[in-house]
Amino acid sequence: MEVEKITEEAPEVKTFRLKFKNPEDAEKFEFKAGQFGEYSVMGEGESTFCIASAPTRKGYIECTFRKAGRVTGALANLEEGETIGFRGPYGNVFPIDEWKGKNLLYIAGGIALPPMRCVIWNTLDLRENYKDITIIYGARSVEDLVYKNELKEWEERPDVKLVTTVDPGGQTPDWKGEIGFVPTVLEKVAPSSKDTIAIVCGPPIMIKYTFPVLEKLGFTDETIYTTLENRMKCGFGKCGRCNVGKYFVCKDGPVFTLKQLKELPDEY
Ligand SMILES: Cc1cc2nc3c(=O)[nH]c(=O)nc-3n(C[C@H](O)[C@H](O)[C@H](O)COP(=O)(O)OP(=O)(O)OC[C@H]3O[C@@H](n4cnc5c(N)ncnc54)[C@H](O)[C@@H]3O)c2cc1C
Ligand code: FES
User: Fold this and answer.
1) What residue owns the CA closest to ligand 1's atom 6?
2) What is the pLDDT of residue 58?
């Protein structure tokens, strides 16, 4: 695929808009919110990223990645017009059809907004299918918030409630959002659990403290969804690299309900 456009989102975080070089591939390619792909740089290897653009927006896909090591380092050095490899889509999906008629509560932290951006745009593009849509998003600092333009767009939409927060000390003098960790802000906002699906993506520590708050608000294990990011190799259930308990995260996931996660071994 050709790297059509590069957006600098935050320190060490970039979004690539990718276009199929072969128009037939572009025509045939379909995916659903929640799925991921394997992105490769010649001679360096492959990295797993979710598809961060919405399936309702055709003709391109986007991924957002943080420079973490070998492959993401090589990707970060690319320029617009260069070519990368892509294979996918892999994995299961957010069941957005089952969520029709419900309120949606999106809770994300840091670089975990990309897996959620896909399903947020997907449900916003089908806005009439859902009741209230609330997004709670936090990052360490104002600088670390990704998709700053989209946050502004969501903030201005009358049909979306957006709450942004930064960790104490991460604010700038003109910061108008909340200051505090995501679970604390969630407790303060206290969205109703009635007819509501909660989708949570974030670093493990955020997830750990967010689930109990959701439970306190009355969410059940079946109404809480998250995505896992186990290290992967093949991406389609052959190598066993991503195995945890009875699941292959690449095939049975990456989307899981809290009910499913509770069936995993304790150390997980
Ligand atoms: C389903 C799925 C979706 C993902 N979506 C995204 C995304 O949208 N954006 C994004 O930036 N990243 C995402 N990741 C994580 C991403 O795959 C890794 O950060 C990336 O592969 C690192 O590659 P590398 O070669 O640069 O790092 P390496 O050189 O292989 O490793 C560098 C460091 O990163 C750590 N690391 C590597 N892979 C992972 C991982 N999967 N989880 C935690 N730590 C890891 C290594 O332990 C090491 O410390 C996703 C992972 C999965 C499984
Ligand atoms: S990554 Fe190979 S089985 Fe999941």
Assistant:
1) 49
2) 86
How far apart CA 23 and CA 137 sit, in angstroms, is: 36
Output the CA torsion sign for 231, 234, 236, 240.
Answer: negative
Residue 230, pLDDT score: 84
pLDDT at 268: 61
How far apart are the CA of 235 and the centre of ligand 2, in A?
A: 5
Minimal-distance CA residue to ligand 1 atom 28: 69
- Enumerate the domain spans of the chain: 2-90, 103-227
Ligand sitting nearest the alpha carbon of 36: 1
Q: What is the pLDDT of residue 229?
A: 87
User: Cβ neighbours of residue 166 under 8 Å, at least 6 residues apart?
Assistant: 138, 139, 140, 141, 142, 144, 145, 175, 177, 178, 179
Summarised one tens digit per residue, pLDDT across range 207-244 is 999 999 999 999 999 999 999 988 899 999 999 999 99
Residue 18 CB–ligand 1 contact under 6 Å: no
Nearest ligand 2 atom to the CA of 251 is: 4
CATH code assigned to 2-90 = 2.40.30.10
Ligand 2 neighbourhood includes 244 CB (under 6 angstroms):
no
pLDDT band at 192; cut points 50, 70, 90: very high
pLDDT digits (tens, 9 = 90+) for 172-187: 999 999 999 999 999 9
DSSP designation for 234:
S
**Which ligand does the CA of 244 lie closest to?**
2
CATH class of 103-227: alpha beta
Structure tokens at 65: 């990645």
Give the number of whichever ligand sits closest to the CA of residue 90. 1
Ligand 2 neighbour 241 (Cβ under 6 A): yes
